[in-house]
Input
Amino acid sequence: DAEITQSPRHKITETGRQVTLACHQTWNHNNMFWYRQDLGHGLRLIHYSYGVQDTNKGEVSDGYSVSRSNTEDLPLTLESAASSQTSVYFCASSEGPLGTGKYTGELFFGEGSRLTVL
Amino acid sequence: GESVGLHLPTLSVQEGDNSIINCAYSNSASDYFIWYKQESGKGPQFIIDIRSNMDKRQGQRVTVLLNKTVKHLSLQIAATQPGDSAVYFCAENPDTGTASKLTFGTGTRLQVTL
Output
């Protein structure tokens, strides 16, 4: 079955370190997204991509970057981790025409990655 | 596992009873709404959606009601089961076809008692 997987599921790091969270989907979806989920907030969009080589900033993009070198993967990098980036991170993907951001079905979410920055 | 946390509004319902979970949305321009279920340690899962040209939509054991006048959305779960225990949250979209415009609510925890 097609799926979306995130790794690592749990990560503890120190302030200032670079961290990369992996996201891999096997649906061949053009649209991929990274969200963070914190108590008192709904899911907030960090970065998103509508296809290979396309990346866009979301609502809370400061301190994060993504790259899209193929359809299946959208790794999220924290260049210099800060305690404010302690959170649960979710990757999601959806069908849609390449490069448009339009989606023709639901968002499929990964199981999440819990990141703790000490 | 990954989940939102412990301090969400909580609705306790006895097994077999109906559940009603409410959501107030913020953007009067939103024209597409989705309910998600998030079980402990898992990512959100799509339950049901509704477009603004409808005021009611039914799925299997679930019904979504939309009141655009007061910007209110509700999710009704019939004959609630223990497996329904989870956090439920709504999402709104002012640009129906563009996924990056989705805005998510904070959620309500549903506890099903036996």
